[in-house]
């Protein structure tokens, strides 16, 4: 009787849900001016949230404002401290609360210190940058639906704060946890949009100062080119991803399959958060959002699934300014001087007086003193550099996500990309229930054609553009402007006709290299250098991925289960290529130098199974050796057989064990592990783990240079026992397909779980699943939601 009663109660809940959604009050339009800064949303909004296993909320509402309300409420319940910290950032108030010299978490910009972060975001506020974007009519600006969702999100976040006690020790009782406005939400979206442009140059924007009387050295072309290449190299990025779509030609059902595996931070404001969002008759989507965003960003619905990978397109360019000899704050364009615009801002500082600084802006963008600490761009008496970031005029990312959420096919995904043009720094990989696969590098990129770069590059740009895709154009010539494509939604960017696209290939895969080898049998070419390279060496992760997925496609009859096996195969391509040769050379070195005591190491390398599972003995030794080796030996000297564009997946190969640095990398790794008290053949999971609730959870996976699909970047602490945590890595994983029924077949996993609050039951639950290579069966259809044994229904509303 209890079971039948429960089923009846759940059925009634479902009926009441639809009735309640229809009775929700209509949304009211929010103001688009600065008043949103002063008056948080005060509408009577509400939503219904059904929680299933692992704290995944299924949010149902009548319209976008109410859906935003439920989303803001549910995100705050899981991540209030992380969210509040991000709002302190975009308000320019970190120095006020945390001191000027502390470092932000890096989720919303590259600022090294709170002070530079505050100066930048205070400048964004003073200029009214986001307000102007909100006032721009769609499609160049955000749609009314997205504006309503931001209004609702702010109201939901505020309502949760007003009606609940914060228990997370990271911010319990903190005065910086306070209500937000829709404009705060939009500013957070702006910060995400410019991460690859202005966000990468925050320190350089806020430190740029006119030269004094002392001479200033000019930028060194060779050093700058090397620094730019390293700065924009995919294998050096702090984020990455894998994604593969299989067409129906390769699957058991004749329908598409998608495996998405983003490698994002495990802490801070760039975490993913899971939900299902439903507006009856309008929207029904499940997946993950970046914290503080209002719509599912990667996910699936009943007809289509998609994921993103960080792209190689360079989202900024530089203009070299010829300065007026009489005034270093004026620059010449076609011989006529133009004065820079001063943006003077003042930020409050904890324990001291406010700090006031001036930023300098030009027709091209802000003057910068460098891109990060390694790439200085000196402002001398004759020359300065201005940064162009087209994503500073792009607040369309959420509209792109909304278009995907409502798509019925990969054709609709492509149509959204062409129409909205809102993705700043990612590729898109998608599959649908009709059996189509899809890839596109549809980014908002500065319109740097190879012709323009050839005609207008300065001497510095002639070196940096081929090496890294960073164009340095002659800012003294008006004819060196970026121009416009007729099909572009904003000036100065590429239109969709120029974007690399691959449709209906047996597989379409990306692992953060350029679009070239999305499918090794159908290489993509013909795009401009700023998008990425062609016929150049691929990363080991790309090579291993293409080997794996092409073999899967050839084998055919694929299912979601095959995607799950690929995700946790944990094959180390570097091991396949190099471990045997390393073990052989180790044995020779041990015989030659018995005093080194290498015999045990040689045996461990030889017995290692070339995987990074938690029980893989010898994996940790190879990992520590390999990191040392690739850091000390140039790529051209690492392999005996060089790269060949005719065989890009299998070359280069054959480890050059005679390379200077091989012996020291090996002996250094052995000494390091022994000093830390770690056995050379210890199982990986014994010394690669995450600590949750005082318990070590062993972790599989491995670093970028090993080439592993299931990438994690663990944090080394020899005193703590090895790798004691993860900075970035596999995050929101989804394996999605269709079997002809009404519901998608989906398995998901959020590796770091929904909540950052140690007291939450969803602080570690999915991390335990990840440790054990287990998955969550997604509950998308109504019958599955109502059938959840963990079902908890919560009606949330403003008071």
Automatic annotation (TrEMBL):
InterPro entries: Ntn_hydrolases_N, Penicillin_amidase_A-knob, Penicillin_amidase_dom1, Penicillin_amidase_N_B-knob, S45. It holds the Pfam family Penicil_amidase. Coiled coil: none annotated. It comes from the Bacteria. Residues 1-31 form the signal peptide. Keywords: Hydrolase, Signal, Zymogen. The keyword DNA repair does not apply. PANTHER family: ACYL-HOMOSERINE LACTONE ACYLASE PVDQ (PTHR34218:SF3), PEPTIDASE S45 PENICILLIN AMIDASE (PTHR34218). Belongs to the peptidase S45 family. This is Penicillin amidase. It comes from Streptomyces chryseus.
